[in-house]
Amino acid sequence: MYAAIDTESKLLLEIDVFSRRGTDPAAAFLPRLTEKHDIAETEFLVDQFDYRTALAHHELSGQLNYSDRNHIEKWFQTVSMRIDRFHSFWRGSPTSARRWLRRFRHHYNHDCPNQALNGRTPAEEVLN
Questions:
Q1: CA proximity to 3, closest of 29, 22, 23, 39
Q2: CA–CA–CA angle 122, 125, 128 (5° rounding)
Q3: Where are the domains positioned within the chain?
Q4: What is the DSSP letter of 61?
Q5: 21-36: buried (b, 16+ CB within 10 Å) or exposed (e) per residue?
Q6: pTM above 0.85, yes or no
Q7: Residue 26: CB partners within 8 Å, gap ≥ 6?
Q8: Burial classification of residue 103, based on how many CB atoms lie within 10 Å of its CB (0-12 exposed, 13-18 middle, 19 or more buried)
Q9: Per-residue pLDDT of the chain (128 residues; tens, 9 = 90+)
Q10: CA-based angle 98:101:102, to the nearest 5?
């Protein structure tokens, strides 16, 4: 799973799932971000060289920052837990998985109050 989150607003910018890890999926994920969001001045917090290599191909920078990554790791655990809950009975295709992730992104951004944002949703934080 690949995701991009604004660490200040907690807004989930993009999320996708691929059948494998590596430079190719990371490189496929990044163009969607550049199409939808202005990320020229963005600092990417990454954990592996796959992302660093993909970022370099797109002339973007990435660094390892454990203090900011703790929030991201907790978020990934939450999403993974929710996926595990329905995975055992779900018989969907990769397309339906991506559709579910888009719906989850909308739900997370618009319907889930965030404690770090004083009870506001990430969308409310961006709009204010």
A1: 29
A2: 150
A3: 2-64+81-127
A4: -
A5: eebebbbebbeebeee
A6: no
A7: 2, 50, 51, 53, 54
A8: exposed
A9: 778 888 888 888 888 888 777 778 878 888 888 888 877 767 676 666 667 777 777 777 665 555 666 777 777 787 777 777 766 666 777 788 888 888 989 999 999 999 989 999 999 999 98
A10: 90
Tokens of 79: 């999403």
* Beta bridge partner(s), residue 12: 5
Strand pairing category for 44-45 and 62-63: parallel
- The tokens for 45 are 């917090």
